[in-house]
Write a structure and sequence with these properties.
The chain is an alpha+beta fold and 202 residues long. Helix content is 28%, strand content 31%. The chain has a single domain (4-195), classed as Aminopeptidase. The protein is built from five helices and nine strands, in the order E-E-E-H-H-H-E-E-E-H-E-H-E-E. Strands 1, 2, 3, 4, 5, 6, 7, 8 and 9 form a nine-stranded mixed sheet that branches. Helix 4 (129-143) links the parallel strand 6 and strand 7. It is globular.
Length: 202
């Protein structure tokens, strides 16, 4: 899910250089030493999103340390293909992250990519970090030759659906029921897709 294999994209996406609350907001590629902060953001966001939806013992598995180990491994030894983990910064503090890679769905076309994580810490929301992360990830994927990007989300997650819709994502009809508890409980997810390159130009 994470890594920096493939085309380079080393420059920052900065919000501005003048005074103001967003002057020090930026996006860059993640480094191995960012893993603990990314793990904390992911665990916080997942616990919030799944609270009341999954059993408490499953919720307890969303541990920052466990997520951090996975990200550190992916950043140190990137998997095959174009995988990226980008982080959003407020000053020097990691407050969000986006992970992208080749789409893994059986019906995915070769030039499809997938957003596998898009998370902003609750304390840093409504400051533009999510939009900067998504825009930067699309830039990376377009440079790498991707023609479309998909994202899976909970079927009733209207906030995320609205956010992605503002960037052109729309439901493509695909859905899945993810098993989320030992007793077989499931949550319905739907897939959204946006084409980032005109097929005639790809």
């Amino acid at each position: 899910m994470a890594g920096d294999h493939g085309h380079g994209h080393d420059h920052d996406h900065a919000a501005g250089t003048g005074p103001g609350p967003l002057a020090d907001a930026s996006v860059r590629r993640a480094r191995p030493n960012d893993a603990p902060a990314v793990g904390t953001v992911q665990a916080t966001v997942f616990r919030e999103a799944y609270a009341g939806r999954v059993p408490d013992d499953v919720l307890a598995l969303f541990e920052p340390e466990a997520f951090a180990r996975g990200w550190r491994a992916g950043l140190t030894s990137p998997p095959e293909g174009v995988h990226r983990l980008l982080v959003a910064l407020a000053g020097e503090q990691v407050v969000g992250a986006v992970a992208v890679g080749p789409a893994q769905d059986p019906d995915a076309e070769p030039a499809w990519a997938e957003v596998t994580l898009l998370a902003v810490h609750p304390d840093a929301r409504r400051q533009g970090h999510g939009s900067r992360l998504l825009n930067a990830s699309v830039d990376v994927l377009r440079e790498a030759g991707a023609q479309a990007v998909t994202a899976w989300l909970l079927a009733d997650d209207e906030a995320t659906r609205g956010f992605l819709a503002a960037s052109g994502f729309g439901p493509d009809g695909a859905f899945r029921d993810r098993v989320v508890s030992p007793d077989g409980g499931t949550l319905r997810e739907v897939r959204l897709l946006v084409r980032i390159v005109d097929p005639d130009e790809g």
